[in-house]
Amino acid sequence: MAAAPDATALWGGTPLTKFRIPRIRRDVIARPRLNARLNASVDDSPITLVTAPGGYGKSTLLAQWALTAATEHTGYAVVWLNIDNDDNDTNRLFASLLRAVEPLQLTWESEPIVLLANAAGSATQQRAALAALVNALCTSSAQRIVFVVDDLHRIDSPAAMELIEALIERLPDHVSMLLGARVEPSLPLARWRVHGELAEFSPQELEFDESEALALAVARLGDNLSATVVRHALRRTHGWIAGLSMLLQSRTSSPVTTDANREAGDRHLYAYLAQEVLAELPDDVRDFVLRSAVLTELNPPMCKVVTGRDDAQAMLETLYRRNLFLTAVDEQTPVLRFHDLFRDFLLGELDRRLPGAARDLHKRAGQVEASVPRAITHFIEAECWPEAIERILQSGEPLLIEGGYATLERWIEQLPATARKAQPLLAYLHGICAWLRWDWRRAKREFRVAIDGLTAPEHASRRIRSMFLYVDALNSSGEAEGATAMLDEIAKLPLGSISQAQLSLQRAWNVAPLGEPRMVGKYFQEFIAQAEQDPARVCPAAAERIHCLLIGFPHVAQSFDRYFELARHIQPNMSSPWKLAAAAVGGWAHLWHGRREEAQRVLQQGEELQHRFGGIRLVAERMVNFKALFLAATGQIPTAIAMTHAVINSLQVPEAGGHRAAWGRAYLHGLARQHWMAMDAQGHAKLLPELLGPRRPAEWPFVDAAAQTARGHAAIFAKDFSTAERVLEIAVRAHAKFLMPFTYADPRIALSYAQLMRGDKVRAWQSFAPVYAAVSDEQAVGLLLLEPREVIDAILAAAPADIRRSDAFAALGKTLDAWRPTVGDALVSVGPLADLSEREREVLAQVSAGASNKHIARDLSLSLHTVKRHIANILAKLDCASRGQAADLFRKHAGAK
What is the mean pLDDT of residues 282-297? Predict the structure, then answer.
């Protein structure tokens, strides 16, 4: 098997013709009226959409305008991206966007190849990484950048289309989008229309008029046709350019029934006329056309291979001169593309005339195709499974680094089960795809195959990685015993320092749901000892494997502090993606110990890193969760609630189904805790039915303690303190074994408050004493910061006199006071966000977390119209041109002094 190319080789393997403005034939009809309109719309509107069925000249019009703009408009920079089927994958689309802007010579905070390699595999992470692209666009010296995206109809993936929407929403003022598609894309066109941000070209506007039809006839056929014949053809085709061209070339007067506004009618007319044209071709040309139809792009070397003709270049020049419904990507070589409908027709004719020939042609093409993705597609079409598998294995790991797991997954799933059966490396790659999707069932199945099959010495590292990811899948499915057994098996293997450290972290995560809280701290101490032996290698490798939710287990906070200190001294002047994960660890530790200034400083650093590198799976979410907790602790609870809602919304996508099954309710308990902090009985009550349901198989046992705690909070809201005391005593017993302090509220504090409200100060302090001891002895101030301040104040006021007189008690009071909301909090009274109302801040918090208008409307119980009005007001008050700019401003200033 050939050596796998690295990410740089895979990046460089993308066909550059995707980013080249197509050449224009000399006989193409100039359309000054439409070009003038395009000029005006590009100058005045951030988005211009040209929509029409195939054959209306969209690509030609866009290419005409782009070539003119690039050569004649001073200060214009035109970026061209021709969408193909591979772009129907969020991560591959993101790679194409980055490649498309290369000619602009932008200044990047991090090189695009690095950004691509560190943008992990989900659509959400790719959208977050757009911030770096937008920042780079702002460094261009061009007065105006026009991003031309053609064939947008090839994208039907909702996630990929969301990426396009996210880019458009974040574009700087000097950048506009010019989109070409056969049908209206699933973008928020209605909203853009309302705000005057969208200019549109309809099929009717692209139709040829009589003067253009006459000019076309002369350009293509000379003076062979009378004006009467041309007018008759124009009436029959309703100005549909491809149909008109074909009808004129066929010189037929046979009646044709069509409706140029209906795609089905267009397809029938196109197929009919294409057959007439094909029938008139010389036999050798017709055979060449049919065989070369298997190619996405027609260039001389590839056409020579699939047709067996030495005169492939001359034949391509003949096709170009004949205008056989194709686009010239490169007029000199030439490199051509058949129009989609015509290619579909040719492939159908190939199967009809030469049954079985397509498989052989695809095989020939795959054997010489330099682009690995295209070669794989050819081999799959040819059912050459060994060749397809070899290239999938060759490019799989670099593709995962790039984030293209959906493409890799699609290739693997097109292989028959018999071809995949004896391929543990395929199972390894497919398992990683499933793990990235949080599809734990499929991940477990594939990793089991990989573990059993990757026994050769050269696959040792992949086997160990499969075992660690298998443990993740087992734990996330609630199968702690199976995870323990696998970790025991890993421990018997010869492990390097990085694997040893990962083993300790996995052990810690594995015992957390088993009711052994002190063992969690023991494994973290082992991890820190390993990290101290080799910090430069272990800290970066382990950063993303540290689960911040374990912060409240015994001795874990101290381990977090030590890790953060080690990580801080590794390449201190260099920004790296792993440092975002390290920042999250440090931030949670500072919050736990009540160090407000340090926590705020880490939050700002994390914001900068996240802005620079985009989102990294799970790590970005940890930063968002940390920020929500920080805002809640500083009294900005409505904003924290809005951010948490947005995180919960992000779990509603199908790919997060496995993760949602195991952890969805944990997020809801975190949200319920914020309502408890705000003493918001109504908001808490809305969540209660789902919080109290029976524990599901994939959920960890702590949800039972969390449910009893939520039940106790509800009783306190109802002033039923007897019931509250009873259920909270049950919760306290469960909490002692199944901790998760930053996920749900501490039941000991609620129990103490309920007893206090019943007038029993002695028992109230007895219940609170272990909490106070942890706060005093271990600086676990986070236990108090994430509770209602009025509850904590009432309990502390009931402390015994000797404790109230102590220095520790006075110091605690000062620490808590430092977290009270002050006039210096940006979200409260000063800074760029000061003019926003509380509701507008809630809306903006959701926007900054990536929520759609629909999700915002649902979460805040608003109409879509009201959400749009709030967003319009926000943009006006902040003087921002787009949602993206407003979101960036919010992320920069929210929670900062």
Answer: 92
Identify any residues that bridge with 81 across adjacent strands, giving them in sequence order.
149
Q: Where are the domains of the chain?
A: 7-206, 280-368, 639-817, 838-893
Given a contact cutoff of 8 angstroms between Cβ atoms, the answer to whether 326 and 342 are in contact is yes
CATH 1.10.10.10 is held by the domain 838-893: yes
pLDDT at 865: 65
- Give the tokens for residue 26: 């000399």
pLDDT digits (tens, 9 = 90+) for 574-611: 666 678 888 889 999 999 999 999 998 888 787 766 65
Two tokens, residue 833: 């966000």
Which residues partner with 176 through β-bridges? 146
Tokens standing for residue 155: 């994208």
pTM (2 decimals)? 0.67
Q: What type of residue sits at position 798? A: A
Helix (H, G, I), strand (E, B) or coil at 298: strand
How far apart are the C-alpha atoms of 429 and 408, rounded to whole Å? Answer: 8
Task: Tell me which long-range contacts 863-867 makes (C-beta under 8 A, separation of at least 24).
Answer: 867/843
What's the N-to-C CA distance of the chain in angstroms?
57
| CA dist., res. 745 & res. 547, Å (int) | 18
Nearest by Cα to 517 from 549, 563, 485:
549
Pick the CATH number of 7-206 from 1.10.645.10, 3.40.50.300, 3.40.50.11540, 2.40.160.20: 3.40.50.300
pLDDT tens readout for residues 247-269: 776 554 343 433 333 344 445 55
* DSSP characters over 641-668: HHHHHHHHHHTTSGGGHHHHHHHHHHHH
- How far is the C-alpha of 157 from the C-alpha of 164, rounded, in Å? 11
User: Alpha helix locations (H) across 263-404?
Assistant: 263-280, 283-292, 300-307, 312-322, 340-353, 357-368, 372-381, 385-402
- Matching fold, domains 280-368 and 838-893: yes
Distance CA 641, CA 289 (A): 61
Residue 418's Cβ-side half-sphere holds a number of Cα atoms within 13 Å equal to 3
Quick check: helix, strand or coil at residue 703? helix
Q: Is the pLDDT of residue 79 over 50?
A: yes
Q: What is the DSSP letter of 23?
A: B
Q: Of 551, 626, 545, which is closest to residue 578 (Cα–Cα)?
A: 545
- Mean pLDDT throughout 658-662? 80
Neighbours of 431 (CB within 10 A): 27
Distance of alpha carbon 550 from the chain centroid: 26
Rounded CA separation 266/268 (Å): 5
CA 572 to chain centre: 29
Contacts of 137 (CB under 8 A, 6+ apart): 101, 104, 106, 145, 171, 172, 175
pLDDT band at 403 (very low <50, low <70, confident <90, very high): low
CATH 2.60.98 matches 639-817: no
For 280-368, which CATH class? Answer: mainly alpha
Confidence of residue 689 (pLDDT cuts 50, 70, 90): very high
Q: Which residues contact 238 (CB under 8 A, 6 or more apart)?
A: 207, 258, 259, 260, 261
DSSP secondary structure string for all residues of 610-628: HHHH---TTHHHHHHHHHH
Sheet of 144-150: strand order equals: 76-82, 144-150, 175-181, 47-51, 198-201
Q: CB neighbours (10 Å) of residue 60?
A: 18
Structure-block tokens of residue 352: 């009809």
User: In this structure, which amino acid lies at residue 104?
Assistant: L
CB atoms under 10 Å from CB of 793, counted, come to 12
- Beta bridge partners of residue 337, listed in sequence order: 327
Are the C-beta atoms of 466 and 431 separated by less than 8 Å?
yes
Tokens 């809280």 — which residue?
517
One-letter amino acid at 381 equals E
SS3 456: coil
8 Å CB contact between 773 and 748: no
**Cα–Cα nearest to 818, from 590, 525, 647:** 590
